[in-house]
């Protein structure tokens, strides 16, 4: 696709975000007119209107945007490094590793409090790094390096094993914990509030900022290890840094929404078809579009639930 057409597609995706926000604000049992929504957002709403729009709907909307962007960028990094279109944090077991840490916390400490919301992403990151490191080690050989096929197969197998353990543990809990964790394990933002938004926002902002400065390195890495080494890139170091960023983004999203699969997988083929790639050919040229398409995809999941 031509560069001019790519700009039009990106511009269209960015326009869809505020349109989706506006539609989602008015989606629910209580309908509001356009002027009413603008008045409420400007601070002129009544107590009931502020409760419905600002306390119930807006946190859910913003959380959906952040989660979509986080999973999409995490999948973008993983697919760019492995050059595998089937790779995403859910399939590779990163989500499952992050999820089991949240499960252990809830089982040992009970309900999630205000302070624990900000600590859960760090616990999730530990689990994601542990499982991701295990999968990476099992998929690497001294002679051939990382095998993309082994990466996917090992990730699927380990993810299935962890999810089975989580299901067995959840079934043995009391009714209140079982209900909370069952919904969380399936992936949901039904209980979203501003503290979840505040806990997730710094992770997404730092991840996006880092990727903006390292996008060219990911472009080169997507061309292969030999070419990357020949162009002066520290291949192993850059891979570790980028994979750590991908794990951190996915872990933070899992901590507040549960394991939502295929959001990171969906963005790449969609943006390839609509926005194309930038030279050199890689997935990082699609990062702006992936943030938009990932967030819009998360909207579809939210409204579908």
From TrEMBL:
Keywords: Cell membrane, Membrane, Transmembrane, Transmembrane helix, Transport
Transmembrane segments: 61-78, 90-112, 118-139, 151-173, 193-213, 242-266
Entries under Pfam families matching the protein: FecCD
SUPFAM superfamilies (UniProt xref): ABC transporter involved in vitamin B12 uptake, BtuC
The keyword Membrane belongs to this UniProt entry's keyword annotation: yes
Similarity annotation: Belongs to the binding-protein-dependent transport system permease family. FecCD subfamily.
Protein name per UniProt: Iron complex transport system permease protein
């Amino acid at each position: 696709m031509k560069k001019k057409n790519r700009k039009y597609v990106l511009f269209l995706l960015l326009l869809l975000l505020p349109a989706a926000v506006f539609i989602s604000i008015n989606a629910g049992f209580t309908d509001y007119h356009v002027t009413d929504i603008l008045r409420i957002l400007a601070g002129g709403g009544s107590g009931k209107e502020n409760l419905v729009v600002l306390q119930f709907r807006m946190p859910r909307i913003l959380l959906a945007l952040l989660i979509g962007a986080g999973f999409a960028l995490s999948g973008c990094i993983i697919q760019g490094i492995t050059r595998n279109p089937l790779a995403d944090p859910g399939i590779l077991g990163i989500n499952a590793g992050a999820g089991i840490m949240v499960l252990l916390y809830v089982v040992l400490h009970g309900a999630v409090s205000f302070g624990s919301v900000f600590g859960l992403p760090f616990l999730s990151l530990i689990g994601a790094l542990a499982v991701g490191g295990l999968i990476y080690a099992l998929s690497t050989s001294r002679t051939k390096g990382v095998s993309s096929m082994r990466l996917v197969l090992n990730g699927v197998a380990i993810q299935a094993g962890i999810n089975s353990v989580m299901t067995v543990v959840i079934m043995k809990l009391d009714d209140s914990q079982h209900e909370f964790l069952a919904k969380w394990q399936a992936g949901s933002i039904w209980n979203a509030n501003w503290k979840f938004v505040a806990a997730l926002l710094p992770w997404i902002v730092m991840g996006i900022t880092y990727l903006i400065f390292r996008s060219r390195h990911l472009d080169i890495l997507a061309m292969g290890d030999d070419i990357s080494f020949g162009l002066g890139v520290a291949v192993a170091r850059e891979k570790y840094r980028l994979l750590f960023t991908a794990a951190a983004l996915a872990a933070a999203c899992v901590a507040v929404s549960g394991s939502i699969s295929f959001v990171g997988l969906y963005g790449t083929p969609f943006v390839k078809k609509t926005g194309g790639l930038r030279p050199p050919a890689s997935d990082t040229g699609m990062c702006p579009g992936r943030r938009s398409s990932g967030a819009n995809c998360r909207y579809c999941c939210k409204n579908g639930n």
